[in-house]
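Reminder to self: keep the SMILES exactly as supplied, no canonicalising. Ligand is fe (ii) ion.
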Amino acid sequence: MLILCLYTPFKLDALVKNRTIVPYFVLRISNFRPKKGIFERILITRRKIVADYIEAKKSRLKYYQKISLYYQTKGRKFVLYKPPGKTIEEIRLEKEQVPGKLYIKQEDKIRGIQEIQKVFNRQLSEDVRSNNPEKVKETLVNIVQETLTEPRSGSLEGVSETVNILISEYTKETDVIKNLLIVSKQDYSTVIHSINVMALVLGYATFIDCSLYEKKILGLSALLHDVGKTKIDADLLTAPRKLTDEEFNEIKQHTIRGYDILSKCNFGYKEIALTALQHHEKLDGSGYPHGITNVKKTAQIVGFIDCYEALTNDDRPYRNAMSPLKTLKLIKQDVESDKFSRKLFEKFAYSLL
Ligand SMILES: [Fe+2]
Ligand SMILES: [Fe+2]
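C-alpha cells returned for the bound complex:
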C-alpha cells in the first residue's frame, strides 16, 4: 500500500489500464485523489474486472453442461477447468485436483441460468406428479431464485415453462397449488411472496374458470409482479422498522423498474409488464406510481391478491401476520372506499374456501 501511494496518478492510471493492480485497492488509498477523468475510468475498469468472471455457486456446478467453468491461479489468471459439452463430474474423474472456487464468464451467465432453469423445470414436473407440495415449493424457490440473479430478457422467459407445468398439472391434481401455500412460510422473501401470490392467483383463476391462456397470463404476471424489487436496495426492503417518506418513495420505484425490465422481455403478453407497473394502483386513484383509475384487469387481480398475501404472510418484526378472515375484513374496507373491485373481492373470498 505504501509503495502504491508513491505512484503518480498518471502511473496509477496506466497500471489500472494494464490491470496489473486491482482498482478497488487503489480506491481505498486515502491519500489518492485522482483527477475526475481518471477516477471515472478507474470505476469503469473496476466494474469490468469484477464482472468478467463470476463465482459459480457450488450447488449449481453439476447442472452446467453447455457453458465453461474456470478456476483462478495464484497469479489471478482465469484458466479453463471444464470445457463446454462436459459435466463437472466427468471432469472430476479426469482431473485429480478440484479447485475450491469455480467461475463462469459473465457473458455465459444467461446461458447458465437457462441450463439450470431447464433442469429445475424437469424436476418440477416430477415433483408435481409425485404430489409432494414441499418438494414442489422447494424446486419453485430454486427456479425463481436462480432467475432473479439476473432478471432480464433471456432469463425471465424461462419461468414461462414453470407456469405451464403448474397450470397443466393443476387441471389434473387440484390440490397442488393450494398445498403450495400451506408449506414453507419461514424465510419470507420476495421469492416466497411471488410464488405465494402466483399460487393464490392460479387458485382464483381456476375458481372463476379462466381459459388456459388467461391462466398463463395471470400466473406469469403474478410470479413476476415484484421483479423490480431486485433493483431496490435489499436492506431497505427488509428494514425492521417503519420507513421514512423518502425510503418509501424509493420502494415505490419497484413498479417502474419492474415494468422497464419486463417490457424488454419476449413473453408475447403486454399484461405482464403492465401488471408490474400497475399492481399498486387503486381504482379511486390513490395508488402508485401514477395514481391512475383505469387499472388493467390483470393488475387489479394481482394487486388485490398481493395485498392479501402480504398481510397474511408478511411476518416482519414490527408487524405480525394476520389471519385470513381478519385480512379479508380489512381489505373489505378498501372495497367499500372503491379502491378494489367488489366483484373481484367476493370471487376471491369464495376461491379461498
Ligand atoms: Fe409490489
Ligand atoms: Fe408484491
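Points to follow up:
The chain has three domains: 2-52, 56-107, 132-351.
Residues 56-107 form one domain.
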